[in-house]
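for the writeup, i need someone to sanity check this before i put it in the appendix. the sequnce is what the collaborator sent (i think, or maybe the updated version? ugh). structure was predicted straight from it, no edits. if anything looks off just tell me and ill rerun, i have time this weekend
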Amino acid sequence: MFYSNENFSGLTGQAAPWNGKPKGILKGYVPDLVILRFGANDSSIYSGIDTTAFYNNIKSMITTLRKVNSNVEIIIKPSFYTNALADGYNDLKPYNAKLVQIANEESGVIYVDVCSFQNSMYSAGKRFIDLTTNNINHPNDFFARTFAMCLLSSLINY
């Protein structure tokens, strides 16, 4: 099952704490593996959520999932970095650091480091526009496939 922050709390665009009420997505379903995916809108200046609230939201989501299945394994996939040259650029590194912290604190939780992979693509000669549809923050098909490869590789290596 693949969840984003919106599935859990409808936080996009709101500076509100996670309310612990997933919009019915877990009714009757007991997942054994969950991928939590976060976009720039979920974890940044766009949402008005600071890193402390972001950290608390993620921890609450994990707690909620573990109430359904105490053995659920969780893969955390962060947002990739947005274009530093774009208007409204937001530095997601502090938010991604909180995700790494959570993965280190929680058993059965791993962090898929798509950002390092993104940076390695730049080092290999790719430009930001080569990876995005809008040269700001939306991955194109090629970059979306690389995300999928990172996720699959995390399953193999885990």
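The chain has one domain: 2-157. The helical segments are 5-9, 51-68, 93-105, 114-123, 128-131, 141-157.
thx in advance!!
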